[in-house]
Structure formats: C-alpha cells, structure tokens
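Go through this fold for my students:
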Amino acid sequence: MSVFDEQFSEGAALLLLDQLGSGAETASNKVTYHPADGSDDVTLVAIVDALKKTLEEGAENKRLIRTLRVTFSTDPSSGFGGVADPSEQAQLTVGGVKYKVKRGSIEIAGGMATLEVMRPVVTAKRRPGYVGT
C-alpha cells in the first residue's frame, strides 16, 4: 500500500462517502451487499454512478444490460457499512433492484472498494418464421 493510499483511507475516503454517498434513508437509494457465503447482508453508504444501458444482440435474443459502478468502504467498523473483502460471487441491491458483480471488476484502493455490477434483461426472443429472424 502506498503512502497516498494509507493517508486517503484514514480520512479522505470517509469524507467522500459522507458528502457523496447514498445510504439507507429511503428505499430508492438504499445499497445492500449480499455475501456469496450466505452470511448477514450489509447495508452500505455508497457512491453510485449513473446507470448505463447496453443492448446486446445474440443469435437467440436481445438483452438489455444495465450496469452500475458502486464505491463503498472496506472498513466494516467505519459507520458507513463496509465489506473488507468483496467477492465476485456476491450480489448488491441498489434502490430495490438486485445486481450481480461483474467478473474482474473489483478494484480496492485507499480503503475503498469499487465494483461494477450488472443486470441483464432479455428484451426480445427470436422465433423462426417471424419478421427479423
């Protein structure tokens, strides 16, 4: 860990969460971490980036992929919630919608974890004999 990471994790990270984080005040901005091992869920104060939508066309269907980046503390005792070692098999609920953690997307630095989470939704299925197949 660099000197910057140590200093950032001691003070600046928590100030960022205090100013930019959304917590459990209302259901629309509540962020919950669901561990893969089935242990207790963790309510987080987190910084949630804007929702991104991507349409993927496959041979069988079209899928709308909803993606978010979520940043939170890695210190469970911080008062902002926290997960010391987030897992790619875990899930997050953001505003009442459950997302899966995207593989290879976990970044940990300066006492903060950033995860990219996604939620694929099939929007159209292709069927033989129909227009567009």
Q: What stands out?
A: The chain has a mean pLDDT of 81.
